[in-house]
Task: structure prediction
Amino acid sequence: MKQLPWMTLGALTLAFAAIAPASAQEKSVAVTAIVEHPALDAVRDGAKDALKAAGFEEGKNLKWQYQSAQGNTGTAAQIARKFIGDKPDVIIAIATPSAQAVVAATKNVPVVFSAVTDPVAAKLVQSWDASGTNVTGVSDLLAMDKQVELIKKVVPDAKRLGIVYNPGEANSVVVVKELKELLPKMGMTLVEASAPRSVDVGSAGRSLVGKVDAIYNSTDNNVVSAYESLVKVAQEAKIPLIAADSDSVKRGAIASLGVNYRDLGEQTGRMVARILKGEKPGDIKPEVSTKLELFVNPGAAEKQGVKLSEDFVKSATTIVK
Result:
């Protein structure tokens, strides 16, 4: 065998020494989301930015991979199995269907869920205490009484509230259940319209015309991913549309009092950084975002036949032009 010159061997040794420590320090984070839409994309991007701020940067010491299930729960399960096979240090699972797919597939790989309204009802964790398992995360749970107060500020005389949602999404089922319990106490009733697929959102919205005084949308992923079709119904039928998330206000809802999903993503990223630095997910309690922001879109109100008070508009955190 021909021997390599000693200078070449030395160079190779030095090169390996330079590479080895960086490789040993590299962490890997795999991110899965049920679908791409502005709110969930903001969670993903916020988490990545928070990780960078915590010292974990893609291309330097962080391997980052992301896949969307494009609204398909079967695809979410495939992504979960693929990621678990990759053995990342942490999987971030955005929205309930993706989180359920990942949690069902592993008891070992650390999982941080995000944008999940009720992780207990979704059976991701047994309670809001530290789970003692491989799962923790950040919820976008909203107090529904505050949501109804917002609806009454936009439409003071509203008696019949419509909601379009996917009955197969645990997040949405929780919201509907709470509204059914809460609205009668406030002299209101709930009218439901089912949208099992994103393509059903427009027709479900049209089924509410003539039956409701306002429509409220939660963070149902089918609805948010096809939001423009619901906005079209609201404008054509002059039905006020109130949202749970600020991105929907930018897309045509009149108002929202909700979580800033960019902030939610950053909160998620900070939790992931703690795990990358050695904490166990089972020792970290699930968290809820407590930072709510009022977004108001006066232009959308005009298109939907609503006149907002000046005081209400001025009270907004953000006025969408």
The first strand starts at residue 27 and ends at 33. Residues 65 and 145 are 38 Å apart (CA to CA).
